[in-house]
Structure formats: C-alpha cells, structure tokens
Amino acid sequence: MQCLMRSHIPQLIMVFRDYLRGKYDVELILREEINASGDTELCAYFDGNSPKFAMVQEEAELFLQDPFDERYQQASWENGDTLTVHHHLEKPSLSGYLLAWNSAKFTTFLTALCAIIFAFEWFGYEQQILELFHYPADSSEKNEFWRYISHSLAHLSPLHILFNLSWWWIFAGAIERHFGSFKLIGLFLVAAIMSGMVQNWVSGPAFFGLSGVVYAVMGFVFAVDKFGVTKGTVLPEGFFTMLMVGIAFGFVSPLIGIEMGNSAHISGLIAGLALGFLQAKVR
Length: 283
Fold this sequence. Notes:
Blueprint: E1 2-7, H1 10-24, E2 29-34, E3 40-46, H2 53-65, H3 70-79, E4 85-87, H4 94-102, H5 105-133, H6 147-150, H7 158-179, H8 181-203, H9 211-227, H10 239-252, H11 262-282
Parallel strand pairs: 2-4
Antiparallel strand pairs: 1-3, 2-3
C-alpha cells in the first residue's frame, strides 16, 4: 500500500475517494493517523501493485491542484459514505519526532530562548535582564535595535510565560509546519516591532512578554482559516470570540490587580489578521 495523500481535513480525502469509486471502480483505504506533531491526519492508501495505480496517482496530483472542482463534489454526492475510515494511531517513531522538530525549528528555538531567559530571571538576574531587554526609553537607547524585539522575550511571572508559550507552541508551530520558518520569522518580527511601538506610544516602555506576538499568530491562523481555501473548516466554532474575550479581559483585569498590555494585544492581532488575509489570498 502506498499513501497517495494526507490531510488534516478529512472531507477532502473522502471527496477524492468517492471520485475514484465512480470513475475507476476502485477503493482507497482511509486511515486516521497521528503524526509526530500529535496532529490527526486522514491518509489515503492504494495498492501500489494495482494496474490502475498510475492512473490513480495521476488523478491524485490533479485533485490536489483544485480539490473544489465541481466534478469532485458531484462524485461525492453520488458515491459517498463515511464508514470506511480505519484508525491507525501508532506512536510516532524517533525519526518522526526529529522530522517534526525540523519542521518547527524557529518555534522550538524561540520557546527555548524565552524559557532560558526566564530561568535567569528566576535565579536572581531579573533586574539586569529587564534593563537590557526593555523597549527604548530615551534617545540614548533608540539605536540599540535589539530592544525593538527583545521586550517580547522577557516575562514577569511563571503564569505569564506559561500562557504565552503554550499558545505560541500550538499556533506558531502550525504556521511554521504549513508555511515555513521564514514566514513565521517574518510574522514574529512584524508583530514584535509593531506591538512594541504601539504599546510604548500608549503607556511607555515598561512592558514585557510575547503576548503581542501570540495574538498575531492566532490572528494569522484565524484569517488563513476564514479566507483561505478551507473556508472555516479547521478552527473550532467560537475561536474569534475567544480572541475578543481575551482582548476584553485585558481592559477589566486591572480591577483584580492584573495589568496587561492591551495595546500590544490589539496591534498584534491586527498585524496577524492582515498578514493572514494576504497569505490566504496569495495561496
């Protein structure tokens, strides 16, 4: 058996299976598998020794170029069912984990960097790190260009870094696996610089944390899902509502003694939405 295609969107694989049923009277084997990143994918297998394999493989390539062609949708109505998915949930191998790390190198690097910086803060170097990493506070620091980014790498409490790195790991990792490291690095730089500029303009340079970037990666994922070819089939219902609740909580949190960089959150989200929309239209 050879895997013809795999996708996080089961409906796409099933549509292709139904099309082959009607045209070639062949049956694909569909398996749910967990990849090395822990994501569930539906994989379509076909007998590599079949005399029809070359034709089926060519059809797979054509399908991937335009999976929403009307002929595929019609075939799905005529030949579809949802009862032939096999569960194949094997534990990923070491090579699979290495492949997953290789596809999310910047996500892993930034997660580790933030954790190491916080560890130094925790063991007595907090004042030195905050002085070195804060946003430029006066004209003497404006040419210290690292400060326009470094403010996003320092965190002020265990809960602060836990929340930020959890969301970063999930959504930045997804972006890097699907769009590549350079795309994620560019998004990080734009979000860190833009959220820092806006927050500094509103409240001054006393702010830290990755949350502006985190809102950017979540906004990017939402825009790609909303305006891309999947049209809202990946993210759960209410995802954007969750983002809005998070923004709203930032404005009421001072009432319970929690200060948040609301301006960084909003500007980061706007940057992510804009870049995600552009990415969706490009692809």
